[in-house]
Amino acid sequence: MSSNSEKARQNPSDLKVLLRSFRYLRSHWRVTAGGYLLLFIISVLSTINPQFIRGIVDRGIAEGNMPLLTRLVLAMLGLTLLQGVLGFFQGKWIEQASQGVAYDLRNELYQKLSSLSFSYHDRTEAGQLLARAMHDVDRLRFLNGRATMRLVEGLALLIMTVVVLLLMNPRLALLSLISMPVLLVQAYWYSKKMRPLWRAIRDQVSEMTTWVEQNLRGARVVKGFAQEKAEIDRFDEQNAVWFDMVERSVLIRALNDPAVVFLTNIGSIFIIWYGGRLVIHGGLTFGDLLAFTAYLSQLAGPIRMLGRLVPFITEAAASGERVFEILDAESEVEEAPDAMPLPKAEGHVRFQGVSFAYFGRRMVLKDIDIDAPPGQIVALLGTTGSGKSTIINLIPRFYDVSVGRVTIDGHDVRDLTLESLRGQIGIVLQETTLFAATVRENLAFGRPEASEAQIIAAAKAAQAHEFIEEMPNGYATYVGERGSTLSGGQKQRVAIARALLKDPRILILDDAMASVDTETERLIQKALERLMQGRTSFVIAQRLSTIRMADQILVLDKGEIVARGSHTELLHSSGLYADIYERQLRPQEVEELLEQREASLARDAKRLRPAISGS
Amino acid sequence: MSFSVGTTSMGRGPRGMLRSLGKEDEEQSSVFDLRILARLLIFIKPYWRSMVGAFFLMVVTSGLGLAAPYLVKIAIDDHIANGDLAGLDRIALITAAAFVGLYVASAAQQYLLSKTGQDVLGDMRAQLVRKLQDIHLGYHDTHIIGVTLSRIFSDVGVINDLLSQGLINIASDVLTLFGIVIVMVSMSPVLALLTFSVVPLMVIATSIYARYAKRAYRETRTTVAEVIGDLAEDLAGMRVIQAFAQEDMTQERFDAVNRANRDAHVRAMALSFTFMPAVQFLGTVAMAVVLWFGGRAVVREALTLGVVFAFLSYVTQFFRPIRELSQIYTTMQSAMAGGERVLQLLDTEPGVPDPPDAPSMPPIEGQVEFRDVTFAYRDDEIVLRDVNLTIEPGETIALVGPTGAGKTSISNLIARFYDVTEGAVLVDGIDVRHVEQQSLRRQMGIVPQDPFLFPGTIADNIRFGDPAASDAAVKEAARLANADEFIRRTPDGYETEIQEGGVNFSLGQRQLLCIARAVLADPQILILDEATSSVDTMTEALIQDALDRLLAGRTAVVIAHRLSTIRKADMICVIDDGEIVERGDHEALLSQDGLYRELYERQFVDVLGT
After folding, report:
1. Which of residues B461 and A430 earns the better pLDDT score?
2. How far apart are alpha carbons B109 and B112 in whole angstroms?
3. Alpha helical stretches, state H, B197-304
4. pLDDT at A423
């Protein structure tokens, strides 16, 4: 997002984006209309106010008219009070409208994001989406609210003030207003110059923060390699880069901030000097002088704001573009208009001549045929990138096939409603995602209406009940962001229970388990076995025990099924399978272990014999 | 296939020791602590010239700011009222000169102040980062990294606000106020006193607003964090949400935090839309007082019109310092709290200090000895008890045992990340506490369990232990670590940037890079904490092969999870509850029918499917 690319963008498209963002005010039109109505009233009042001062001086003080003086002072106070009250409502209403726009936009973004298919989320960084939903929406909010309000206010006040001053004394008006255009340009220039600098500084600070964070996280490595000094040098380098930028911003600011006061003051010098001459010649009164000064001082703020807002509008348009890009994104997986719900599934899953490529890249799956009758366990085996995950992602239609079709009980998944399809498929992935909520809510995620008894039954079957009961608040325990308070093995069992509770006909699971201890692994294994019973299951298998349970094993290589069959068949027929088996599945010393077990059994038998015979 | 009991190998789970650290209880810290302030002021010392200059300029700007309305008064009373055109010209010129002077002085003052402020900020950060490199590892066991980061970045900023801007602003505000009071009183004591009657109202209004606004804006920060949190979590879990067809439910959940955020913002803004008109109104009240009382006095000819004009200007100048001074309390409070936290960090003892004049560790042969070592992270929690162990140069020993048994502690003591409580750890017969730590660790290498990579390029990471290493050396190390091949396949090769947390590389690739890093450092003693996570078969084979090469000819202590590593070790130590309960080679230990056998069998019972 360099300044060049912003310049390159043409205004017409900017305008379209801006108009589109203003359209969101429509559902808040009452407060918006009210706010702008009040804004005009207040601007008129602001233009009237200095006239009271003028009256006080010229007609009250100069003519010695005490009652009039009192009345005018009270009227001035009343007017300011009225302005204040109206100002409160005006500000609040505009704020309500613009916060409402932000709220609507965020909800709409959320809805869109949850309807976009996996492939969208694959190629989009979550951090990017987050920044758009927060930062960019905030800019649009500001545009729809205070920014436009200040713009309109500034323009209204400027026009009215200029008219009034010209009516009072054209020549003095021109002289005293002489620095206003300069003020406007200066504010514009300053804002234009500083914004990219501020952004760069912010980026640099966040880079430094990340850097220090990583340095602390890796403290063991830093110390282990005795690299503290080198790390300090690296930090100093970054600090120096930051300082250079900051120094430049400090200089620009120091030159600009006092300039605002200076430019406003120029006008007041003209008022005293030229206005003073006019007073001496009788063409102007003291009250006029004071009124001029008052007009000028209340104009300075809005003018400055006007100058600063102009560069902002370009940025707001860029933000709008980023936000609307999400809202306009098309999901690769769209429900067909005449989609029908999947009737209670038997669980017959078939892949017929399926090929698949991620958005026009090379093929990840080539000509896949699978027939999994209801209740069968299909084990998928292959190296990373061989296409295992892709196959399981096609069944719940997280992606659409490029060629061929995937059917469930004879229905092409593309003809079914997504909810009915996914509602009957249970999924347990390697990376178990839990939500920051209670254990119960996480368990019931796929079936919010489940009863307590059903939840507990599922947890028991998944070997999770015990550890849940041991937690401080049992099922009501809050699991922290992404389930952070649970161990890897516990998360996995909660995820299994979550899938069990759904009682799906079709099951998809990845049995790879990262860093869990042996005992947990056994518990999980048991839970998985129970889960698979009587369901059509697709398993990305890492474990021999899982593979032995499978009715058919598919060996994948580079997107193709290179071998299929049972364990024994494959050991003989497939070289790749034998290879994987040798390296990964076969415990290195099964035979040895078996021998030892027999020996130990024999020992146990020896120990037991006297006991038996003795009784 | 991992060979371990327990979860991750953080050793004794430092999270369990976390005391309540994250809380930022600003409410409780004192508002004004002279000792803290005095120590903070030391940071300004190197820049005292700039500060003195800024102070001088501040006096000039305050004076010129005060002079301008008075010049207007002279213009009105002496020249305009008397029809003195030449005098008017003169006074206009003088005023113009004053404004130019004001501009120059203000710009210079602001530049000096802000620059000094940023200098101090940079210095403080650099000092904190230096301190953190010095502090021993135990510090991170009890301190959350995020909290430490907020010391370095936000606390330091708050302190800087006070030191560079705050102090001078206070001085300038006080000076301006006094100046205005003196000038106004000298022009008209009665009118001045009447005008000042508005001041208490202004102070009250500001402090009430400050209190509510602080709460309201804190509320908005909380709700924004909640929206971000909810959205971030749901984006991360979007696949699960869609897989379980729960989009409607999560949408409702999001709607709730989204709405709370909207309402909190409207509330906070409503507060400031109450405050701003109130201030404006009080200003007008002050003007009304001046116009009404002043106007009557002018009619009675007790005052001149110029005085009324000047009063009107002073009144508008008067309120800014008052508003700022009534908010000083908050600035002081957060700066003091921040200062206290920063100083606390700076005062932290390194924990594992070098003795004075510690000699360098001579080139290491590689013999490691634990002599009656007892160790506790905290006084009451003994982690290792009476450990005696000798590792000869070039030997590999494998540490095996349940989580929390003390495996990690043993490896931590060799590198002197911590100091023993009793007994001694000796390398080549030299107590590790008697030599300079850097010289000791420079001859050691570690491969952490969680393959940790730093931000920077692949090459930067491989040459981490020896930043001066040539490109050829980096490539050679990568080749020996079996990492060269995948590095070549990355778009920028060795110059590929590592994303935060190394997410652009697979776990196995990160492990290979960590091995390459250790290979390049060429340590005599190696501490290897094997990863427990599973990687795919091919990578696993590469890792095994690379490790074999890395371990050859070095003394190595391996916290082992892989059977193959364990079997290759010269000696296996089975650690349980802080003691070495069994030691020997694989066969010997298996036949002992003890803990080792139990651990071993538990691992393979499942595999056999019984």
Report:
1. B461
2. 5
3. 198-236, 238-243, 247-299
4. 85
Instruction: Kindly report the nearest CA distance between residue A196 and chain B, in angstroms.
Output: 19
Predicted pLDDT of residue A24: 95
Token pair, residue A193, equals 């110059």
- The minimum CA-CA distance between B7 and chain A, rounded to whole Å, is 6
CA of A380 to nearest chain B CA: how many angstroms apart? 14
Query: Which of A177-181, A231-235, A557-561, B329-333 has the weakest average pLDDT?
Result: B329-333
Of the two residues A187 and A548, the one the predictor is more confident about is A187
CA–CA–CA angle B441, B445, B448 (5° rounding) = 120
pLDDT above 80 (res A543): no
Give the bridge partners for B397, in sequence order.
B557, B571
3-state secondary structure of A62: coil
DSSP collapsed to 3 states, A115-180: HCCHHHHHHCCHHHHHHHHHHHHHHHHHHHHHHHHHHHHHHHHHHHHHHHHHHHCHHHHHHHCCHH
Inspect the interface and report whether the beta carbons of B68 and A265 lie closer than 8 Å: yes
At B4, the pLDDT band (50, 70, 90 cuts) reads very low
The tokens describing A130, both together, are 């987050």
Nearest to A239 among B7, B122, B438 (CB): B122
Q: In sequence order, what are the residues at sequence separation of 6 or more whose Cβ sits closer than 8 angstroms to the Cβ of residue A159?
A: none
Domain B355-443+523-610 has CATH 3.40.930.10: no
Domain locations in chain B? 33-187, 355-443+523-610, 452-521
Confidence band, pLDDT 50/70/90 cuts, at residue A437:
confident
Contact A220 B603 (CB under 8 A): no
* CATH for the B33-187 domain, from 1.20.1560.10, 3.40.50.300, 3.40.640.10, 3.40.190.290: 1.20.1560.10
What's the mean pLDDT in A366-387? 86
Q: How confident is the model at residue A591 (pLDDT cuts 50, 70, 90)?
A: very low
Contact B564, A587 (CB under 8 A): no
Q: Report whether pLDDT(A432) > 80.
A: no
Helices B247-299 and A66-115: crossing angle in degrees, nearest 10, is 170
Query: What per-residue confidence (pLDDT) applies to A78?
Result: 95
The beta-carbon neighbor of A224 closest among B441, B532, B534 is B441
Cα separation of B117 and B158, whole Å? 11
Q: Which CATH number fits domain B452-521: 3.90.1150.10, 3.40.50.300, 3.20.20.70, 3.40.50.1820?
A: 3.40.50.300
Give the pLDDT score at A50. Answer: 92
What is the identity of the amino acid at A101?
A: V
* Residues of B whose CB is below 8 A from A434: 237
Note whether B33-187 and B452-521 share their fold: no
Does B452 contact A512 at a Cβ distance shorter than 8 Å? Answer: no
Q: Which of B284, B461, B503 to mutate to test the interface with A (most CBs of A within 10 A)?
A: B284
Q: What is the per-residue pLDDT across B409-425, written as a single tens digit (0 to 9) for each?
A: 898 899 888 899 999 99
Q: Judge: A515–B2 Cβ closer than 8 Å, yes or no.
A: yes
Per-residue pLDDT reduced to its tens digit, A548-567: 788 899 988 888 898 888 88
CB contact under 8 A, A269 and B99: yes
Average pLDDT over residues B228-241: 83
Q: Which two tokens stand for residue A493?
A: 């069992």
**pLDDT for position A603:** 57
Nearest alpha carbon to residue A166 among A176, A180, A179: A176
The whole-angstrom distance between A77's CA and the closest CA on chain B is: 7
B260: contact with A, CB 8 A cutoff: no
Helix (DSSP H) and strand (DSSP E) numbers for chain B: 22, 12
User: In this structure, what token pair is assigned to residue A379?
Assistant: 């084990």
Comparing CB atoms, the residue among A213, A277, A446 nearest residue B88 is: A277
Per 3-state DSSP, chain B is made up of helix, strand and coil in percentages (nearest 5) of: 65, 10, 25
